[in-house]
Protein 1
Amino acid sequence: MKQDNQAQRAAILGTIRRGLGRGALPADQAAMLRTRLDAHPRHTIPARVALDHDALIELFIANATREYATVQRLADPADLPAHVAGYLREQNLPAELVIAPHPDLEDANWNDAPLLAHRFGRAQPSDMVSVQRGFAAIAETGTLMLPSGQRSPTTLNLLPDTEIVVLRDSDVVGPYEDAFDRLRQAGGMPRNVMLVTGPSRSADIERTLELGAHGPRRLHIVLLGDAGGDGAQG
Amino acid sequence: MLNTSPDFKENSRRAMQDAGLQKALDRARKPFAQTRAAAVARLPEFETLRETAKGIKNHTLANLDVYLERYAEQVEAHGGQVHWCRTAEDARAAVLDICRRVGAKTVTKGKSMISEEIGLNEHLAENGVRPVETDLGEYILQIRGEAPSHIIGPAFHLNREDWEASFRAAHTHLPADRVFHEKRDIQAEARAVLREQFIAADVGITGANFLIAETGSSVIVTNEGNGDLTQTLPRVHIVLASLEKIVPTLEDTVSLLRVLARSATGQEFSVYTTFSTGAKRPGDPDGPEEYHVILLDNGRSNMVGTEFQDMLRCIRCSACMNHCPVYLTVGGHAYGSMYSGPMGSVLTPAIFGAEQAHLLPTASTFCGKCESVCPMKIPLTGMMRHWRERAFERHLAPATTRYGIRGWGFVARRPGLYRGVARIAAWGLGMMGRKRGRFGWLPLAGAWTAARDMPAPEGETFFARYAREQRSR
């Protein structure tokens, strides 16, 4: 017979405390644990990210590329729509986009690329290509941090066959810890935070790696220069 | 749910004669070791991080009650619900309650070993809720009615011809004469078929690799993206997690993530590592309206404070089985448990009882490879030895085995007697085997000599020879 939730909780915690040979943790020790939670200390961080910012960008690009993503730097953010249109042509993809309703992307002049149909919002199952605004690019392993929110629907990262993620050079960080610190500063954990390293894949069939399992089979990352095109090209 | 652990010996015999399985094992053996080794070589801090990871989990387990309470508090603060479940039955009931309340007909599922442990699919199906596995490997196993044979590559025992045949049998709405030119065509078919299920589902159920006390988040790690679709599209997201998945902070979590993928698949990082914290927030354009965590105990709290506590550090990377000579000979199904290989040999008796699973801890040569690759430095062989002792004390092994071990123990503890017996045996065997120099059969060792000859001793024991050579110096 299913006991009520509180009784189950008490029974489980009671068994754990008996196993640990104590009752509830004494107040001073509980306070130490709270301090640890509040301070959330870092552990060993790989030396590979001990680099200046330009080198971190290079490391991010190298690692993301190794994981089958493609990366393009654009010194002038105004070039974004034309670049996206070119990418779609090159990949033989339909010129139809669903775009994250983020100011950086809403402000881009998508009408510069006149053959490009687009709308802003969450993705629908029929959408083939999405454009997302990334929150951080983690150089350590070429990983994107994509939090959910009003301006960055999670479905954009999942439903379309091709995802294009746009970030600024200044969004590139070294280790995961730096990205999470930025997220804390931006107001804490949203409902969903995806760390994405390359396009979807599976090796379930005879251990052969195949891209495009259930998520996007192509991941294209665009890094925009920060100061509106004053030569951040690398 | 446990199926055939008591038949481990018979299962193993069959597994070694299963040509398809042996083909799959041959394919996996080398890459398992090579991919991990390559990933470790690329990260000079790996050894330091193993020590860090072990320290984080030991700290967590020493304060498990506090971190669980904090975690539950944080989940609730973000609009989620925690269902504390002592037993598998409680967990099944809690999931079914939610499904019934929201009128769920179809449930999509990300890969979850807890789901296997509590026998969730059978329970849902019996009660009119259709579960659909969406991990590619789990999906084909569901079609075939098989259990997973590996904790992260559940269908690695299957070959391409099995995939094609199963898909043809299951997807009867597709043209019967379609051709699978490449393995990717098989994968594409699953993608198309499952896409419809993701969209149709009322509830999505995932497992969890970690639960974070600081934020109340659950974390899943996948390469396919199926877990993310499972938890993003339906109205309700249910997380199945056992209570030892708890980790204090985000920093602790990323430290464990640094060793997880490298130990598991040899990747630097898995494709999708996703943190879920509560239900859809105001203004969110997508995501589930309800977020539930089924927090399962099922025997784990009883391991706290015992010689098996270290097992609760396990992060389910599968490195131990990927390097185990026994696992790589008989595969996962022989163990008769969703947890196989060295970690399964320790965990299965703890969860399902030594009566059912006492043979699994005997499935080890104690070569120690599992411990040497375990990112959490779990003393797996020591714990298997503890289980063997318990099985011996509780008379779970057959009488002949127990008398044999007891007799051997009696002799081995008495050096004078041991040398005497060894002298007689060496002399006797030496005499009998003088002609051929080896034995094709020996009493009480028929199984051993069935596959190889026993070389005949030369008539003198090591001790005797050593003493003689010392004297002649």
Protein 2
Amino acid sequence: MHRKILVAGLGATALFLAACGGGSSTSTASSAAPAASSAAAAASPAAPAAPTDDSNCADPTVICVGLVTDTGKVDDKSFNQSAWEGAQAGAAAINGFSKYIETTDPKDYAANIQQFVDKGYDTVVTVGFLMGEATAAAAKANPNVNFIGVDQFNAVDAATQPNLTGLVFPEDQAGYAAGYLAGLTTKTGKIGAVLGTDTVPPVKRFGEGYQAGAKAANPNVEVTLVYHAPDNAFNDPEWGAAEAQKQLAQGADIIFGAGGNTGNGALIEIAKAKGAGDTVFCIGVDTDQYNTVPQAQKCLLTSAMKLLAEGTSDLVGMAANGSFPAGNYVGKAALADYHDTASKVPADVQQKVKDIIAGLTDGSVTTGVQ
Amino acid sequence: MSADAAQTDLGISGPDPRRELRTRAQAVIVPLVSVLIAFAIGGILIWLQGVNPLVAYKVLFTAALGNEQGLTRVMEKSTPLILTGLAVVVGLRAGLFNIGAQGQLLVAAIGAAWAGYAFQLPAIIHLPFALVFGMLCGAAWASIAGVLRAYRSVSEVITTIMLNAIAIALVDYLASEPLKEADQPLTRTPAIQSTAALPDLGIIPMGFVIALAVAILLGWFLSRTTGGFRFNTVGLNPNAARYAGISVRGTIVLAMAVSGALAGLGGAIETVGITGRFEPAFNAGLGFDGITIALLARANPIATIPAAILVGILRTGAASLQFETGIQPEVVDVILALTLLMVAAPIVGRLLFRNRALKATRVTSGWGS
């Protein structure tokens, strides 16, 4: 009886530890970030009164920028990280102070935003689609604070809510460019994509843009898109890996992974496959994943990027100098550098892809995605 | 097992008052000392990150308890934890380890959302209807595991875990297809009618009051009624219960249903009191926290209240901890894990009480039996 008890207790403990182990393991790794932010602020050229903490944020001459992550860490190698880099760069450029809070429970969105408001921050950046409502509510309640919703389409009229901007991206263009490259590069005539959930519109636009781009490059190419179920859509690397493997087995030689850790799981799996970087390739998303997911470097052709940091940094600057573009602000899409796989992409293909991106940017090429 | 031990475990006053006293003292002292040690170890972790632990803990507790908003959030966060904790407690008393509180909470949360938005009723009927409907959803979901255990001897540990996975997929489907709010992209149901919304009593959320009342009621039920006696007897020795004329199967099914209804009440209160609709991400992890709390409380219904409030305080203060000191919010989960480790594997009990340490019989007697 007694032994059974001990085993049961330990079993339950192990279960609990497993449930919360993921977060706690990173607890020391990223603690240097706040220090880095103040260093960045201090290093900016305009030396006078660069704030090193947020004690004077209520002073109108002291610019303070706060960032609230979605349920995820600020070093997630994806959205949160890019937005934080942008917020830091933007704050440094205007000699301001920047700081973040990591959300652990979606029910805390409003409370976390409020921390910055209470401390007199001038600009609050919130990251991710799911925080849209909390951000809009906070903007309404605090007309003197500027809110930047990264990757949040803002449905509120700019005239009635001049202190709120949604930073959105032409995901379909980024996906289109990636698909165009894949369509020109595939040898088997089959390409695939492992995506987060299609209930999140940006993810769907990535997927459909990818498909449209591939068909534009090569009408005969066969494109397989697979979306995760809505729950845990962005944090299921095992599912991503399994789906990538499935598509490889079906003959796809280029696979686009888009959806946080789920997509990263696909990329890492493809990098382990036979012929990775030679006959089999992967395409990353959001940021240049050559830097953010080094395990995928071997197969990584490019990444369909949203220039998130640039967009955030621009908006932080505009908020400070009074030219804040209320409503929605469309950032830029781009493809990342080819890095190690540059030799696998013929010069004429590289040129064609460059032309397509230019066409997308100036509007002469349209993706046909709603 | 001797008759003497059996009596103590049943909570009937034994022949030895000193033993009784020692039992009670241990039940309080062991978790308290465990919490203190966990805070000390957590303090070392904080200190290693270059922050004074005393300052950090002061920030954490001030944010949670130092103002009205903080207190309200502590109560809001504690509410579902008390109820899922009670769900696990009821199961443990009847010899069942219900790992499925999360799934039961989810189906109840979406059930209450549906009951809350799809009907036009006066508030006096609508709110109780939404709560009770949620509880029934939770009870029905748990009963699947209860019936399988009672009539086919399938371990409820396995079935409740599997039912969690099914519940997650089911509520996702419901919230993204038939019950989805139209004309917007998110996976969620429409907002509940104002007639189904749970009011606040000043700074005190009504849900918290309900949770406290349910905990006290359950404590009374388990220690003072024949129904509770049946649960305890079946949990301690199903064969003895059968000889005594107790329907073991009926008790198992009933205990699972009650357990599911309690977890379901937690989910229903989240919907009608906090989120105002069902949105899958907003209910993550609450059921699993219930296991933690039940073990911390050593399967005592009243003790789930302080255990849940402790977790609520830590979770509420965690964001401010990061805001003020830069410490990662997950440090509070480390503290909780350490506390549980010391309570569940009887490290502190052994240390303090040597060979007179209570065996955590009641907590885990259902495992594998």
Protein 3
Amino acid sequence: MEAAPQRVALPTRETPPPGTPISVRLRARLRRFAPPLTFALLVLGIWQLYCTVSSIPESSLPAPTEIFSALITERALLAENAWVTIQEIAIGYLAAIILGVGLAVLICSSKMIERAVYPWLVVSQMVPIVAIAPIIVIWTGFDLRPKIIVIALVSFFPIAVNTIDGLKATDPEMTNLLKTFGAKRWARFKTAQFPAALPFIFSGLRIGAALSVIGAVFAEWVGSSEGLGYLILTFNNQTSTTEMFAAVIVLAFIGLALFALVGLLQRLTIPWYEDARFDDADGHEGGS
Amino acid sequence: MTALEGVDIDIRAGEFVSIIGPSGCGKSTLFNMLAGLIKPSAGKIYLDGGEPDSLLGKIGYMPQKDLLMPWRTVLDNVTLGLEMDGTRRRKARAQAMEELPRFGLKGFEQRWPRSLSGGMRQRAALLRTFLAGREVMLLDEPFGALDALTRQAMQEWLLELWATDRKTVVFITHDVEEAVYLSDRVHVMSGRPGRVELSLDITLPRPRSYEMTVSPEFNALKQQLLEPLHEASRKQMEEVR
């Protein structure tokens, strides 16, 4: 612990480079999570204090301790419905990735297709999903299908747009270089265009991840008999505010977990990009 | 618009030829034509006596920017040309590993390009072109972005490399001293439309050494090149006005 290299002790370091001892990594991680956790505890403390001191009824604003105990007493119900929502998000989000990346590749494959499809891609986002979700339910029923469709519709757009930007970001000189190596279009796509687009794609994936959770809740509100969104609505109708808060917290954790999963995937897929960001920290220390 | 007109250049196998001229004189256009990236609207480019449909994949090409892919390690970057040729990965890597020491990159094969210095990046880019195995290599101001000392070291190193392998090198620069020091012949170009103003044989003996750069012969050659070059730059300026 004492021998921790000086460079890791800089406050701007987010991820220590590979090969750093575990203890140092742990400390860096602790340093990273300490501020947000402290802040959360502070807010929870004030919240708790307010609920104790004022006479606000539990049905309006339950204290954090009450929500916590609801999390434990209702754990079976929460877990059961969380599982339903997780499945919806998993399938819907995957569909959004396939749809988003697929459309982006298609649009970038020819100027003609781009001109024909791109405006409609934008128009598709002007149509409020809120308005068409009931129609989707009418078409597809109350099962998993409408949820997947709504989630995919909500989250494919940022994935598609970011992927398109990424695919267009290839340095034209790089394309020229590959041409002089005799590389045909597919080889150029594989070796240059797609890898260069990956950081962009991951940006889209992170936004899409956050949206997919919102999409899931919304789809369940429109027509469902299970899932966390449905549960929140039911608790709301029963003015079981404490349990509602508990369900919201579980939902938030699902969103966080998905976000973290995408982050992990990014670190594994494009380590060169992470390293690049880490190296950049050399230049501007003392910030934040 | 005509970018080039009256560019008659004859390059023999194993020669080191430089093309020098003010920016905007059509050097890049000529270069892209030689690489096969642009087809000339008139005129012909012969290679080994034949006139190929496309020069793409037949000429080694090293643009000004190193264009190393940040997502590939140094080793995977330098084998890019071989990979595009369909060479088996193991064979390509073995070939690259063999050449790494000569290019001053030994021990750096698993590094990301961004962790290399400017000189190393240029050497990696050159190794990538070199490994592609073409007999003619086009180098577009490969040392333009380097500091003076690194540049000098790189020039000496390039000459050594060239002396061993005797590939045909076409070198673009706007540094007269660099052109004289490296080349067998220097072509001076002037712009709008780009044409060759002067072709000068560099009669200095080989191997060249850095001491030669202060010899009277060296200076005389430099002087001969500077005159048309100066004229070309002046004309360019006037046109802009």
